[in-house]
Amino acid sequence: MKKLTALIFFLFLTNTLYAQNTKDLWWKRNNLRVIQMNLPSYEAATINADSIVADLITYSANTLLINAGGIMAFYPTKLDFHYTNPFMKENVLGDVIKKCHQNNIKVIVRFDFSRVHESIYKAHPEWCYISPKGERIINTDMYVVSINAPYVQEKAFKIIEEVIDMFPIDGIFLNMPGYQVNNPYEGKYHGIDQNEFDKKAFAAYSNGKVLPAEENKADSLYQKYLAFKKHTVEDWSERLHKLVKSKNEQIAICTYSDKFVDIIRHESQSMTTLPYWPYTASDNVSNAVNSFPDHIISNASIQQISFQSRYNAVEPQEAQIRLYENIANGSGLDLSMMGDMRAYEDERNYGVIKKVYDFHKQHEQYFGKYKSLAKIAIIAPGAWPNGEPMQEYRGVQLMLREAHIPFDIIEDGQIGNLAEKVKGYKLVILPEITYLKPEAIQVLKDASKAGTHLIATNRTMFDNPATLQELFGAKIEKKDNDGAGNYLVPDNRNIFKSFPGQKMLFWKFNLGLYDLSGTDQKLLPILSKGRPGPPEIIGGHEPTGYYALGIKNHEKSKALIFPVSLGRIYYMHGYQEHKNLLLDAISYVLPNAKEDIQTNAPERIEVILKEFTKNNVSNREQTKSDGLIMHLINLTGFSGNTYFAPLPVYNLDFKIKSQKIPTKIFSLSTGQPIKFTYANAAINLKISRLDGFDGIVMEY
Question: Where would one find the signal peptide in this protein (predicted)?
């Protein structure tokens, strides 16, 4: 009986501890201050645990991300298929982890299973990528592997298990997971992997189909291949999750995807083409936190200019904007640099890093537990937008950011998983969202029926004519049409109120020709290109019978379609007339959209308003709001192609909607109280001076 009682007590205690450990997972507090030291092989010979920890403490970091294995082992591996870094000092990784833990610093170790050393390739060439032309992807003496071959499918798990068994790590970070078809370090595309293991795995998945050799979205075989890739990546991730959590629930899994992951990592990288995008961190974090609300997000500010210029850091003011935007949107801080911090080749950002990381440490109770107040959602074309859809998406964002209109971002692929969240918005904007899953389409239809307005631009839903007709009353006659030389007429001045003195608005880029007979209003008549030539003969811009805006009335909502590249033209050229087309349309469907935040702040002051709950250990279960926090990020130093120090801005007035009266308002940057008044469900306050950043706390 005593043995049975003891067993029951043991099981109870074990289950209780497990529940507590699950609840107290260290990363869940969302107060990460990560510094990643991406070590070149040769730096393993000189790194020192004491200096690394001293630097982490100096810069207020609470998490280190450092190399462990994959491409090469930074520890004494016993596995013959794991190439050992020839510069490795035997005990250094263990010493780093031990001394970090002595100073309450977590350690996430980095794995990269995208490549193997030449010696491994020569022993097992069947493990590696081969292109449709028979090419390998090679970087010096490193060969890209095939995800379905034994190295990734079997050996990678043994490497991870070895590290977990040897060291008390706090997390693992997977760099470059998934299928590799590009050589990003040289900017070259090689094609779909034709490795024999990939062929066999695809045949088994597809009931005997042959692996495609070309990427063609219109090809049903390629669509099957995309589903196969998703399946294999998720299967591998699930197996990894089971392995890691069987070892220790407190080990966080971090990578760029969301399935079977604890921390979703994103990256703010330097731009290689103009125009530069100063909102990269706000874009990344808002997208991730709203698309994956059950995950912790860590957006890394990548120090390097490019893969070819790794030892040159981005400008200090660019790094500062990224880090403050991380905080403002609900991420912790994350910085990725080459090597450790001693004798670094470009230390210009060190002052910014120290300032912002210390600021986060001092005020972390006001960061990380946010609730959005936005009534508008912008749909993102994926987690890593590119090409014209990216330009359209960024242009629409830019319009709202400059107008200080709050909005959330939701990834297009996640709409179907967030039905109730989507229904909660007053307006959803779809900037050239060219493909949506059937379940996402249904969510938008249900939201429209419930009262959510929709605005779509350019080629949105071109692949779904039935839905385009049902929701927007539009039929495509010519989806792609060069609009250079055409004009739009802002005809209805009850809607288009921002065009005094303007009768015609120039156009370029795409100008879709749509049959809008299914709409209730056709606006913005399109004028023909007219006569090119010298001043003496120009003119002739006549109505074409087409329109650049259609409005369809639903029972409780409206659906507006601009079949033109409205966002792209503003992103690339920045003429206010194009921004005002969208802002006037928003005011038409949401007359109070600009009333949540009313301010005289310049357009280059980014204003991010959140509801916050204090992020203390003692109230980790609390969900009740403690007040509002308004983040102000000064981008006045951004000139379009470089970053200077921001200009101080004076006498900023704010009127902020609030159903509660604050008990106090103060500045995080100065610690000083801010005088305010409250009337008509709004807080009125003035900020005498704004430098680079401030957080205005309005406690209830």
Answer: 1-19
